[in-house]
């Protein structure tokens, strides 16, 4: 039995470069949104899993800036109970089921 060896060349691309590079590669691994941005039809993909219900985004501030007035106000705004309630109850299609209230879970 003969074995055919195939050599693969892997190249890491910047997240924002991927959609523009899709026509120049034989295969790609990335986020579904990258393929959508690159106009790759779903039938061309091997696997397009559904996106998770939520992504864990975080507000990150550099330690030297934590006590600055604008940062303190920003942290207060993000943790305001009214914002949390709005996120739970909004009918805004750009937000509903996409952004979720802050929780420790």
Average pLDDT rating: 76
The helix/strand series, from N terminus to C terminus, equals HHHH
Helix content: 25-40%
**How many domains comprise the coordinates?**
2
Kindly provide the radius of gyration, computed on alpha-carbon positions and rounded to a whole number of angstroms.
Answer: 21 Å
Portion of residues in beta strands equals under 5%
| Helical stretch tally | 4
The largest pleated sheet is described as: none
- Beta strand count: 0
Structural class: mainly alpha
Catalogue the unreliable spans: none
* Large-scale geometry: elongated
End-to-end C-alpha gap: 54 Å
Task: Explain the overall architecture.
With 105 residues, this protein is mostly helical. The protein folds into 2 domains: 50 residues, no CATH class; 54 residues, no CATH class. Helices cover 29% and strands 0% of the residues. It is elongated and about 70 Å long. The protein starts with 17 loop residues before the first helix and ends in a 16-residue tail after the last helix. The mean pLDDT is 76.
Summed up:
This protein is an all-alpha fold and 105 residues long.
């Amino acid at each position: 039995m003969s074995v055919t060896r195939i050599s693969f060349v892997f190249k890491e691309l910047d997240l924002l470069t991927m959609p523009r590079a899709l026509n120049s590669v034989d295969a790609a691994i990335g986020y579904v949104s990258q393929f959508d941005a690159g106009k790759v039809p779903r039938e061309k993909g091997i696997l397009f899993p559904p996106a998770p219900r939520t992504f864990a985004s975080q507000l990150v501030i550099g330690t030297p800036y934590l006590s600055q007035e604008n940062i303190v106000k920003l942290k207060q705004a993000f943790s305001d109970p009214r914002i949390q309630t709005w996120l739970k109850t909004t009918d805004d299609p750009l937000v509903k089921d996409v952004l979720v209230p802050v929780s420790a879970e």
